[in-house]
Specification:
Elements lengths: L18 H18 L2 E2 L5 E3 H8 L4 H5 L2 E4 L5 E4 L4 H10 L9 E10 L11 E10 L4 H18 L5 E6 L6 H13 L7 H6 L13 H6 L12 H16 L5 E2 L11 E8 L8 E7 L3 H4 L7 E7 H10 L11 E6 L2 H16 L3 E4 L6 H10 L4 E5 L1 H6 L1 E6 L5 E5 L3 H9 L2
Parallel strand pairs: 1-5, 7-8, 12-13, 12-14
Antiparallel strand pairs: 2-4, 3-4, 5-6, 6-11, 7-9, 9-10, 10-11, 14-15, 15-16
The structure holds histidyl-adenosine monophosphate.
Amino acid sequence: MLRILQALRGTQDILPDNIYKWNHVESVIKELCALYGYSEIRTPMFEDTKLFLRGIGDTTDVVAKEMYTFEDRGGRSITLRPENTAAVVRSYLEHKLYGDQQVHKLFYIGSMFRYDRPQAGRYREFHQFGVEVLGASSPAADAEVINLAYTLFKTLGLKELELHINSIGDYKCRPIYRQKLIEFFEEKEDQLCDDCQARLHKNPLRILDCKEDSCRRASAGAPKITDYLCDECEKKFEAVKRYLAALEIPYLVDSRLVRGLDYYTNTAFEIQYPPLGAQSAICGGGRYDGLVEDVGGPSTPGIGFAVGLERLLLALEMQKLIPEPANRKKVYIVTLGEDAVVEGIKIQQHLRDKGVIAEIDLQDRSIKGQMKQAGKNNAEYTVIIGANEMEKKEAAVKNMENGKQQDIPFLKVSDFITGSSRQ
Ligand code: HAM
């Protein structure tokens, strides 16, 4: 096959047969967000590259290795968004949403782009549902966003999830921990993978969640961030845990959880579905109290998360939790000749106006071909208009379930079909 006739590596089409799964998940998301008081925000798919360099951090894998960056025809450096937190913050600042001193609770659903090695659950174009809460510093906001993610999965019926939480401190206490960690790993530098050796002095926390066996072994016994939190950070972390307990949300404190983006402070969390293997994180998030200032805005606290929708759908499929689409009444209209089509499309319109799914042949096929199509469509009723029917101004309406056929005046067909649905 011609290469141009294949979707690019790491991208996929969502075909009509599968779209109901996405619609199901998205409608549960939208209902839940309304219930929690979150409003939808839509931002562009690409932004000025500098936004991500500054927002996400240039030593992160996402920025250093995974961005789709190109120069546009005007010579500007553009990047397809690898994540949406930085872009939502840009929009919040551009439109001065902070001016009203209110907490802004936002959510989004959309494509993100990362140039990574594709595998099950990891794509180059993928979709996230995310939320960002801007202007709320209380640990109650941390508990609320975790609760929203947790309730989404519970509402969808998912089981066997693990919520991992950690606190990675703030600009006051993290530097002390960072130095301790560098000292610890300097002794074992030769045991670290090449990436981690490069990270050692730039971003030593990332060594803790490296998946390489040698780095995992080397990090056994490493100092824990939770032992170095300042009083304020410790108090906040305790409050988050207390609120989660009050909500009866089970969690594991995971001192290795550091997350891959530089903007996090205090609470970091992930929700994992272990049967997905290497790509088991279906949701990741945390607090980012420095980000708004880092990209040039007034000091504003923030917290949020993003769920990978492909991974969520894989988990839902594994647990058979996606309901088949609701079967609304279907009608297929079979006609012979142009005059019959005139009557047929009028009946079709009456049915559609009443919310009944109705279709008519668009290929000038024989009556036999059209009847076959009615079967393929799983039609509940077939409305047949041939020469006899045109003469009597009545359609032959066949109930495809029991085979019963009745002649109904053209003008009454839609009433007959919708009326019979109530019987
Ligand atoms: P992240 O951990 O980079 O965080 O991504 C969040 C989720 O997106 C992951 O847990 C995973 O489910 C999904 N995901 C990431 N990369 C891929 C991929 N290549 N293929 C498929 N799914 C993927 C963020 O993006 C942050 N912006 C989350 C956040 C919002 N933090 C605060 N607010």
